[in-house]
């Protein structure tokens, strides 16, 4: 049965604020407002980035960095975003389509995750995890980040324990969401991080040590 426990007055205010932000900033990535503000000052035009899950973020990144590799699983959305790139003359995005596998148990070996193997260790300035198979993607991409590079996880409150008030957040008692997320959580436990929340969703930045 669907839970409505999150429908508190605080959540409703946060939800209205989030809807207003998305309406007034329709070209911004679908991340928290604070996360987008951080990225706007953090990114450099020499950066090489990777994202899992495409769309508004893809266009936004393309305007700010040297090149982006973007991975998408949904064929219809892939075609839509491909046309969007063409209409806007975007040339610095390597856009890939990898469909979901039949069984989630095979996710680690899917093309969507294994594409990470094409990259050299320490070759990425950032990686945004915002699509399918997020646990396996996060685990795979850690070694590809350069020292000082950043792992960005959207809806991070669904996967890592926190004190977030956003819906479906995991508590310290819950722990990480599964064995793969636990492995990632343990590996980046000593990394500096910034955790942002809109009260509706959370986005976190984890900075690989120098």
Write up what this structure looks like:
This protein has helices spanning 9-24, 33-42, 56-62, 75-87, 111-114, 134-141, 179-187; strands at 48-52, 67-72, 93-97, 124-129, 145-154, 192-197, 202-207. With 210 residues, the protein is of the alpha/beta class. It has a single domain, classed as Rossmann fold. Strands 3-2-1-4-5-7-6 form a 7-stranded mixed β-sheet, sandwiched between helices. Helix 6 runs parallel beside helix 7 (179-187). The termini are far apart. The mean pLDDT is 92.
Helix-strand layout with pairing:
Elements (H helix, E strand, L loop, with lengths): L8 H16 L8 H10 L5 E5 L3 H7 L4 E6 L2 H13 L5 E5 L13 H4 L9 E6 L4 H8 L3 E10 L24 H9 L4 E6 L4 E6 L3
Parallel strand pairs: 1-2, 1-4, 2-3, 4-5
Antiparallel strand pairs: 5-7, 6-7
Helix pairs in contact: 6-7
List keywords for this structure.
alpha/beta, Rossmann fold, 7 helices, 7 strands, 32% helix, 21% strand
Shape annotation:
globular
Query: What is the helix tally?
Result: 7
Distance between the termini: 46 Å
- Strand fraction band? 15-25%
Mean pLDDT: 92
Low-confidence stretches: none
Helix content, binned percent: 25-40%
The CATH topology: Rossmann fold
- The H-level CATH homologous superfamily, spelled out, is Vaccinia Virus protein VP39
CATH hierarchy class name? Alpha Beta
Oligomer: single chain
The major sheet is characterized as: 7 strands, mixed
Order of helices and strands: HHEHEHEHEHEHEE
Helix-strand category: alpha/beta
User: What is the CA-atom radius of gyration, in angstroms?
Assistant: 17 Å
């Amino acid at each position: 049965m669907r839970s409505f426990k999150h429908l508190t007055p605080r959540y409703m205010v946060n939800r209205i604020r989030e809807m207003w932000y998305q309406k007034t900033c329709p070209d911004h990535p679908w991340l928290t407002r604070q996360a987008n503000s951080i990225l706007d000052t953090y990114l450099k035009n020499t950066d090489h980035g990777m994202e899992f899950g495409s769309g508004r973020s893809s266009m936004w990144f393309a305007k700010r960095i040297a090149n982006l590799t973007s991975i998408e699983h949904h064929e219809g959305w892939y075609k839509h975003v491909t046309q969007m790139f063409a209409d806007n003359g975007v040339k610095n995005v390597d856009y890939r389509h990898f469909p979901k596998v039949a069984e989630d148990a095979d996710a680690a070996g899917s093309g969507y995750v294994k594409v990470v193997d094409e990259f050299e260790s320490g070759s990425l300035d950032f990686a945004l995890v915002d699509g399918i198979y997020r646990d396996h993607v996060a685990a795979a991409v850690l070694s590809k980040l350069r020292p000082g590079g950043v792992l960005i996880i959207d809806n991070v409150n669904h996967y890592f324990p926190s004190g977030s008030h956003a819906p479906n957040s995991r508590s310290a008692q819950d722990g990480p969401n599964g064995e793969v997320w636990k492995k990632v959580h343990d590996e980046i436990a000593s990394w500096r991080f910034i955790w942002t929340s809109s009260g509706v969703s959370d986005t976190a930045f984890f900075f690989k040590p120098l």
